[in-house]
Amino acid sequence: MRYQISGKQIDIGEALQSHVQTELGAAVEKYAERPTDANVVFSRSAHEYVCETTVHLSTGLTAQAKAHATEIYAAFEACNEKMEKQLRRYKRRLKDHHRERSEPVELSGASSYILASEDAGAESEPESLQPIIVAEMETKIPSLSVGEAVMQMELAGAPVLVFRNEGKDGLNVVYRRDDGNIGWIDP
Q1: CA atoms of 12 and 32, how far apart (whole Å)
Q2: Which regions form coiled coils (predicted)?
Q3: Residue at which a domain ends, from 97, 132, 166
């Protein structure tokens, strides 16, 4: 597994890096069979340290965790516990689905745009009806089953996930509804 351990405007020592590799490696290897890479970022927020961890699995799923603490090691330990809990739940759900994925998830390329929000206080007519594009990025669309898509959306903490349905070979969307249930759009 590849590790990328960095700090935003703080210096990360060798001792912390080796501690992160051993502890995170043990937690991930316990619950995930083929992790590909892990990204750990430490930063400061006022008097607290913040640890953000992202682990990519060969199945295409991504687990993320974030924790705050007054000490940097305590922030990592809390983040590591959250990551371990997510991976434990993920493994339990995989067992519940009784499905083995032998091949990694296939990813398709797509464009992702961020559009500028309209000013709520502006009462004047806009100059054009075309939205202002703030950012244009490349993104990946995974090929998943509906159950795996819901699991990926929950692991990422995202409100919506676009995926290519393995069973029907078309683009689908799962999203969290206002009532707490999951919606599925299958065009």
Answers
A1: 26
A2: 73-100
A3: 97
- The two three-digit tokens of residue 79, written as one number: 């983040």
pLDDT in tens, the chain (187 residues): 889 999 998 888 899 999 999 998 888 888 776 778 889 999 998 899 999 999 888 777 788 899 999 999 999 999 999 988 888 887 777 665 545 555 666 666 776 666 666 654 455 566 667 777 777 778 788 888 888 888 888 877 788 989 888 877 788 999 988 888 888 888 8
Give, to the nearest 10 degrees, the angle between helix 14-31 and helix 72-97.
20
| Distance from C-alpha of 114 to C-alpha of 131, rounded to nearest angstrom | 10
176: CATH: 3.30.505.50
- Which pTM does this prediction carry? 0.59
Output DSSP code: residue 12. -
User: Tokens 């006022």 belong to which residue?
Assistant: 46
